[in-house]
Amino acid sequence: GAVVSQHPSWVICKSGTSVKIECRSLDFQATTMFWYRQFPKQSLMLMATSNEGSKATYEQGVEKDKFLINHASLTLSTLTVTSAHPEDSSFYICSAPPLDRGRDGFGSGTRLTVV
Amino acid sequence: AQTVTQSQPEMSVQEAETVTLSCTYDTSESDYYLFWYKQPPSRQMILVIRQEAYKQQNATENRFSVNFQKAAKSFSLKISDSQLGDAAMYFCAYRSPYAGGTSYGKLTFGQGTILTVHP
Question: Quick check: A42 and B47 CB within 8 A?
Fold first, then answer.
C-alpha cells in the first residue's frame, strides 16, 4: 500500500516559464498531500500542505503565488512553479499519509532545472 | 513547534560492522511517531523503521533497530552487519499524531546523516 506516483521525474525549463508537477496516490485516497523541497545533501523542507477540496496551507516563507498547489481529487495533487527562475532549481518530493495514519507514501521526486 | 536534530553530518562504517546514527528531538506532545528514512542516490525515500511513542519496546526490523529514550527525547538507529547497500543519507523524522486540519501527518525531518560503507 501507500504507493505514490510523481511525474515528471526530471524537467528542464527556461527561465520565466511555468512547470507543473503531478503527484498521484495509486492505491489509496489521499485527502492530504505534502510537498517538500530538497537541495543537494540537505534535508527535506516542507513547502506546503495540499488539502482536497480546500486551499493549500503554505509554510512560512513560501510564496503562494509562485508555487501553486491544486488538490483536484482524492488521488491527485499538483504543484505548479510559476515564472520559474534558476534559484527554483531543486528536487521536489510529494508525500501522502494514508488514512490509517501509518506508512507515508513518497513520490520518487522531480528534479527541476531552470536555465 | 517540533524540531529534530541529527548531529552527525557524515558517518562511515566497515562492511559487516555496526554503526549507530544519532537523533534527538524536541516536543511538548506525549504521543507521536518517530521514523528513520533512508534516501539512496536515487533519492527515493525508503522507510527503515518506525516507533510509536506510547510503545516502550524498541522497534526492530531485521538488521535495523532503534534505541528510543522518551525521557531524553533520543531516537538512535543501529545498523548491524552493515552492507554496501546501506550506504545512503539517513533522515530521522517526527510526526505529530492526528490533530485534524493542516497538522495531520506532517513530518519534520532532521538534517540527515550521510552513511558511507567501506568494503
Answer: no
Note whether B18 and B80 are within 8 A (CB).
yes
Chain A hits for B45, Cβ within 8 Å: 44, 93, 95, 106
Q: Reduced to 3 states, what is the DSSP secondary structure of residue B111? A: coil
Q: Average pLDDT across each block of 10 residues of chain B; the chain has 119 residues. List them in order.
A: 93 98 94 94 94 92 97 97 98 80 72 97
Spell out where chain B has E strands.
3-5, 10-14, 19-21, 24-26, 33-39, 46-52, 60-61, 64-69, 74-79, 88-95, 107-109, 113-118
How many C-beta atoms lie closer than 10 Å to residue A34's C-beta?
Answer: 25
CB contact under 8 A, B42 and A43: no
- Find chain A residues with C-beta within 8 A of B104's C-beta: 32, 97
Q: Listing from the earlier edge strand, what are the strands of the sheet with A19-25?
A: A4-7, A19-25, A76-81, A67-73
